[in-house]
Design goal:
The chain has 224 residues and is an alpha/beta fold. The protein has 2 domains: 2-118, Rossmann fold, CATH 3.40.50; 126-220, Winged helix-like DNA-binding domain superfamily/Winged helix DNA-binding domain (Arc Repressor Mutant, subunit A). The chain has helices spanning 10-22, 33-42, 59-68, 84-92, 105-118, 152-163, 171-178, 188-203, and strands at 2-6, 26-30, 47-51, 75-80, 97-101, 126-129, 132-135, 140-143, 146-147, 210-213, 217-220. The strands form 3 sheets. Strands 2-1-3-4-5 form a 5-stranded parallel sheet, with helices on both faces. Strands 6-7-8-9 form a 4-stranded antiparallel sheet, with helices on one face. A two-stranded antiparallel ribbon has the order 10-11. Helix 3 (59-68) links the parallel strand 3 (47-51) and strand 4 (75-80). Helix 2 runs parallel beside helix 3 (59-68) and helix 6 (152-163) crosses helix 8 (188-203). The longest helix is centred in the last third of the chain and has 16 residues, at 188-203. The two termini are 28 Å apart. It binds calcium ion. Residues 8-9, 51, 53-54 line the site of calcium ion.
Length: 224
């Protein structure tokens, strides 16, 4: 999944980015409110981590602007301890959760997982389809109980497909939700990844579950 971190303290931003990348997410970072707001409105994120005290436009004003624009992406507020008033205000403005700094890494991970689950139909940390099971906590994928060896990018694509099973996903959507801003814009690479994923899944004895839709993209659904 793709996450935007809006945080002006470089150390905190890079630390949070590192933790999220370990969780196999694609991460973009904005160091001030205005560029965070611009990114949030122009790109497709699955989650936004938003600091309150930011140079230029503060986090609460950014949040208000995003919600006024109708953006419904989950927002996790990052705030220093003692800013209780700001946290309450943030929740009232449409934040989904908050995390007080300094925070424990385990708590950051758990809250991110919880927010990414919130919009999904399935609340379990294990996403399944047929014989396939993807554990978002342990980052393991099994087919009929057999562990699959996947690269981080393959895992991320599979997670995005599974979170949106039975929905038609264009290559553009996959690129937007799995890559950060470094995506080169060549959709052939997505075809390559899908082919590799299919091969790996089918080698484990699972019938085809990633289907190509002509001129459309891909849909993941139960084998017929
Ligand atoms: Ca700050």
């Amino acid at each position: 999944m793709r996450v935007l971190v809006v945080e002006d303290e470089k150390d905190v931003a890079s630390f949070v980015g590192k933790v999220l990348r370990q969780e196999k997410h694609a991460v973009d970072i904005a160091y001030d409110g205005k560029s965070g707001e611009d990114k949030a409105l122009s790109e497709s994120y699955d989650l936004i981590l938003l600091d309150i005290m930011l140079p230029g436009k503060d986090g609460l004003s950014v949040l208000r602007a995003l919600r006024d624009e109708g953006l419904r992406t989950p927002v996790l507020i990052l705030s220093a301890r003692g800013e209780v008033h700001d946290r309450v205000k943030g929740l009232d403005l449409g934040a989904d959760d908050y995390l007080a700094k300094p925070f424990a890494v385990a708590e950051l991970r758990a809250r991110v997982r919880s927010l990414l689950r919130r919009n999904a139909e399935v609340k379990s940390p294990v996403l399944t389809l047929g014989a396939l099971a993807l554990d978002t906590v342990g980052h393991e994928v099994r087919v009929n109980g057999t562990l699959m060896e996947l690269t981080n990018r393959e895992y991320a694509i599979l997670e995005y497909l599974l979170r949106n099973k039975n929905r038609l996903l264009s290559k553009g959507m996959i690129a937007e939700h799995v890559w950060d801003f470094h995506f080169e814009g060549d959709y052939n690479i997505i075809e390559v990844y899908i082919r590799r994923l299919r091969t790996k899944i089918e080698e484990c004895g699972c019938p085809r579950i990633i289907h190509t839709v002509r001129n459309g993209g891909y849909v993941m659904r139960e084998p017929e």
